[in-house]
Amino acid sequence: MKHDRGYRLLSQKGPAGHFWLSLVCFSGLVIASFLLFEQQIQDFLTHLNLYLPSTSSQKLNLALLLIALLALDVVLPVPSSMVALLAVAMLGSLGGYLVIFVGLCLGAGLGYALGAGYFRLLSGRLGLHQRQPGQLGYRLGTLSLICLRGVPVLAETSVVAAGMQRYPLPAFLLVTTLANAGLALAYSAIGSFLVEQNALLVTLLASMVLPGLFIAGYSLFKTLRRHDAEPSLHGRFKVSYDYPVLFTDHLFDPLNPCLHRQLTAEHRGQVTVLVFADEQLLHSAPHLLEQINAYFAHHSDLHLQAPPIAVPAGESSKDSQVLQQLYSDMLQHGLDRHCYVLVLGGGAVLDAVGYACATFHRGIRLIRIPSTVLAQNDAGIGVKNGINAFGQKNLLGAFYPATAVINDFQLLTSLTRRDQIAGLAEAVKVALIKDQAFFQWMEQQADALAHFDHAASRYAIRRCAELHLAHITGAGDPFERGNGRPLDYGHWAAHKLENLSQHRLRHGEAVAVGMALDGLYANALGLLSDADSDRVLRLLLKLGFCLNPPELALKDAQGRSLVLLGLEEFRQHLGGQLSIPMLSRIGESVDLHEIDPARMEQALQRLSTQADLAPLTVDEGCAQ
Q: How many CB atoms lie within 10 A of CB 306?
C-alpha cells in the first residue's frame, strides 16, 4: 500500500508530479550506467590524469578553454555542471572557482547581449514587438533570475530573456554576478570534497544531479508561489509636468505678450477662456474688469466666454457651496478640456478654483494669476488645491499643477498694508528652513519690507518663489506621499489658529505665530540656540507681526489649550505619523516625530504672556 501511494504521488498529473518522476528515473539511469560501466569510466579518468597541466602556461591555456566552454554554454550544448567540476579537479579549488565564476559571468553577459540585440531584432521581424513583454510567455523577475542560474538550459534562457525584456543592465549585472559567485562557490566546495574523497560515483552524480536539485528547488518555489496567490499585474508610468512661473507688470496691457503666449502656446485657432476673480480684488481695483475685457477684445484669437466671474474672497471661497457654483459656471459656459480658466486672487481663491478645475472633466487647463504677496511667493507656485470641509482646513483637495503661474506685481499695489505684510511670513519661513543668506538679507531689509518698498518686496517675492519651486520640483515628493514636509514649518499651529479666530487672522499672520511657537519649542529642547531663536522673533516683530494673539490663550472645558489640539489634527492630516519640521539652526531644519507636551505648553505660555512680543509696527493681527 505504501508503494502504491508513493507511485500515485509521483505519477500525479501536473508539472510537479511529472518532474519528480523524471528526476527519479534520471537518477536511476545514472546509477545503473555507472554500475554497468564502472571499470571503463575508471580507466578513462586514470588516462585523463596523465594529461593534467603541470606548467603555468598549460594551466592558463586550460583555464581559458574551460572559461570559453562555460561562456559559450549560451549557444553550445555544453554540460556546464561537468565542466565546472572538471575545472575544480584539474585546477584546484581556488583556480576552479575563478574559472567557474568568470565563465558564468561572461556567459550571462553574452546571453544578455544576444537577447538585447539579435533576438530582439528577430522578434521585431516576426512581429512579436507589438506584443507586451509579459505576453511573450513569462515576465522575468529578479528572484527568478537568481534561482535559474543553476538550472541547465533555463539558466541560459533566462539571461537571453532578460536582454529581450530590457531588464535594467546595472541591476542585471549586479544580480547575476552575486548569483554566479554563490554558484561557483557551491561547485568549488562540492568538487573539492568529492575529488579529495575519490568518490567517483558521487562525483558523477553531483555533476548530473546537482543541477536537478536547482530545478527541484525552483519548481517547488513556483508551486508554492502559485498556490500562495495569483501573480499580480503591475502598472507603471511617469507623467512629466512643466509649467513656467513668470514675473511681469501690467499683465492685461494689450501690448504685454506674456499671457497671450501662454494661452496660444499649444493651440491653433481660437482659444476659449473663462475668468474667475477674487471679489475683494475687483473691489480694490475697479479698473481691472475693464482692462480684462479690453485685453481679450484686442486679441482676435482669444475668446472670453463671459465677463469675469467674482468669487468670494479669502477662506470663505473654500466652501462646498462655492465649489458647486464654480462647477455650475463652468458647465453653463460649456468649458471642455481644451479651454482655459484664468483665476485671479489670493491663495484661498486659487485653491478653490484650482480644485474645481482639477475635478471638472478630470482636468481643465488652468493659469494662476496670484494677487496677494502670499499667493505670489508661495500658494500660487505649488501644485496643491483644496477646500475646507467638516471643520478641517484643506480636507478635500487634489494635486493639480497649473499650466502656468503669472505674477503681476502691480496687482499687489492695491492691497492693504496688512495684506502686503502678511505674505512676508512665507518668505521668512522658507528662508529659515532653506537659505540662511536670504534670512540675513531680510534682517537687513526689514524696515524696507515692513513699508512694502517695491524693490525690496520684488526681490523677496521672487526669491521666496524660487526656493518654493526648487523644493517642489527637486525634493522628490511633489505630491506629498511621505510625511516630511519642511515647507509646512509653523503650519500645524497656524491652521488651528486660523480656525480658532474664524479666519480673522490671515494665513501669513497665523504662520508667523506658528514659527515663533516652534522656535521657542526648539529652543526649549536645546535644538535651537538662544541667539537664533531671538533673531527669529525679532525679525517677525520688525516686519509687523503680532506674535501673541488672544487665540493662544483659549482652552476647552477640561482646561486643555485649544491651539495644542492642533497637533493631533495635524497628525491625522499627515496620515497617522507625526512629522513636524523644527529649526536646528537658521537655514536648516530637522523632522521631529514626537512632541513633548509639557515643553510645548511652556513654549506656548512664554509666547502668549510676554509683553515684549507686541509688534513694532501697527498691525490688526492682535485685535480682539
A: 11
What's the average pLDDT block by block, 10 residues per block, for the chain (624 residues)?
42 46 47 48 48 72 82 73 75 84 87 74 48 43 71 74 80 85 80 60 51 59 60 80 93 96 88 96 93 96 96 92 96 95 95 96 95 91 90 87 95 92 94 95 96 95 92 76 72 90 92 95 95 96 94 88 84 73 93 89 87 55 56
Bridge partners, residue 365, by sequence: 340
User: What is the spatial distance between Cα 123 and Cα 547, in angstroms, rounded to a whole number?
Assistant: 70
User: Residue 346's Cα: distance from chain center in Å?
Assistant: 29
Question: What end-to-end distance do the CA atoms of the chain give, in Å?
Answer: 94
pLDDT given for residue 209 in this prediction: 53
What is the maximal distance between C-alpha atoms in the chain? 110
What lies within 8 Å, CB to CB, of 192 at 6+ separation is: 88, 92, 93, 96
Closest residue by Cα to residue 192 from 60, 101, 184: 184
Cell of 478: 511633489
368 secondary structure, DSSP code: E
Q: Which residue has the cell 536511476?
A: 28
304 touches 311 (CB < 8 A): no
Residue with cell string 507586451: 132
Tell me the CA distances in angstroms from 408 to 8, 58, 145, 303, 590, one per residue in order. Answer: 83, 82, 57, 22, 35
- Distance between alpha carbon 133 and the CA centroid of its chain, in Å? 25
For residue 557, count other CB atoms closer than 10 A to its CB: 5
pLDDT at 179: 84
- Dihedral over alpha carbons 462, 467, 469, 472 (to 10 degrees): -160
- Helix intervals (H) in 229-367: 258-264, 279-284, 288-298, 320-332, 347-359
State whether the Cα torsion 442-447-450-451 is positive or negative: negative
Predicted pLDDT of residue 215? 57
Are residues 293 and 307 in contact, defined by beta-carbon separation less than 8 angstroms? yes
502 Cα distance to chain centroid: 35
Please give the angle made by the CA atoms of 103, 108 and 109, to the nearest 5 degrees. Answer: 100
Domains, the chain, ordered by start? 20-228 (no CATH), 245-415 (3.40.50.1970), 457-613 (1.20.1090.10)
Alpha carbon distance 480, 179 (integer Å):
37
Q: Using an 8 Å Cβ cutoff, are 223 and 135 in contact?
A: no
How far apart are the C-alpha atoms of 410 and 52, rounded to whole Å? 91
Q: Is the dihedral of CA 216, 218, 222, 224 positive or negative?
A: positive
Q: At a CB cut-off of 8 Å and minimum separation 6, what does 501 contact?
A: 510, 549, 551
Q: Which three three-digit cell numbers place residue 225? A: 508561489
Residue 193 exposed, middle or buried by CB count within 10 Å (0-12, 13-18, 19+)? middle
